[in-house]
Write a structure and sequence with these properties.
- This protein has 397 residues and is of the alpha/beta class.
- It is 42% helix and 15% strand.
- It is built from 15 helices and 13 strands.
- The longest helix has 21 residues.
- 45% of the residues are buried.
Length: 397
Amino acid sequence: MSDTATTPQDERPDEPRSAEQLMRERRAAAYRRADRVLARVSPRASLRERLGRLCEAAPDVYDLDETADVYGNGVVAALEERVAALLGTQAAAFFPTGTMAQQVALRCWAARTGNPTVALHALAHPEVHERNAFHEVAGLRPVRVTREPRLPTAQEIREFEEPFGALMLELPLRDAGYVLPTWEELTEVVAAARERDAVVHFDGARLWECTVRFGRPLHEIADLADSVYVSFYKSLGGIGGAALAGPKDLVEEARTWRHRYGGMVFQQFPTALAALIGLERELPRLPDYVRHARVVAAALREGFAGAGLAWSRVHPGEPHTHEFQVWLPYEADELMEAAVRQAEETGTYLFAGFWETKGPGLSMTEVTVSEAGLAWTAEEVRAAVEDFARRLPAPPR
């Protein structure tokens, strides 16, 4: 072999890792080792931990001596029945993803109304995160009712300049700060859509946590809409999966389209079991998380003020769910470094989420308060904020 022969790939020295890769590794390690966080997010757990929790809790929610599901029967069918009962609908169908569930629902409604136009918010999930799937895959025509960081108003629905067959409302509107309307505003918006002979579909990926803000049970909230999609992992800590709930004939039609979309998965029992566990264990706790998120948000504001930051914002000021935004006048990498260093040096990972650049010298992160966060007092949150702020660079003069 000549001296110029290429070194085999597995014998080459490791290539230098980028700063971004190194930060991802530090964040992951800091999160695993942290003694205190506001939320333990399931996707960050190891496979061993996830499997251990599933095996431990599954016997409490389903008879494990039953035969495993095949193409949607067994435990999957039981999950569908549970969701329909919780939401007060005639039926529900399990889907592997929410993206698929909502496309199917809205294309079914488009066929029934004869109008493929879907009115929705400019920050709605299909507009921001799904690569134009409504149009490219389902043949739907999305139109944006508003770009304001809130849900559409009844007046905006009534005055919208073109016809639409369906109105889709994301509850809560995640990219605007997990915001919700009031119950009265929501009922007025639904009524305005009905006046235009449009159907109403709720993107309720996080509908489970809306009951505190609305002061209504889940079935009463779902009853406002013609169809509802819910997720099993965003608030419930499941592995994945979603459900479409609504009238029996719509759900049966949706099952046909689910098959056409490739959603008839041979076996899904781990996902279904994890969803049932979430409904059993996490769903009853969500109101406590929402109420404590308000305590945490207020303490964060007070902590930022006490630390002498020139400007900060917690949005919404009183969170509508157990998730909200924090905005600070720093570059994202500066905030990430401060958050990770605090976790590495103290074991407290206050801002464990990703910081996103929102403008020159302005960044935002999302905060979730779940079971781990219930142990934090307001004073402990304020102290952690002040410790975090000390790790930030001095503001420019």
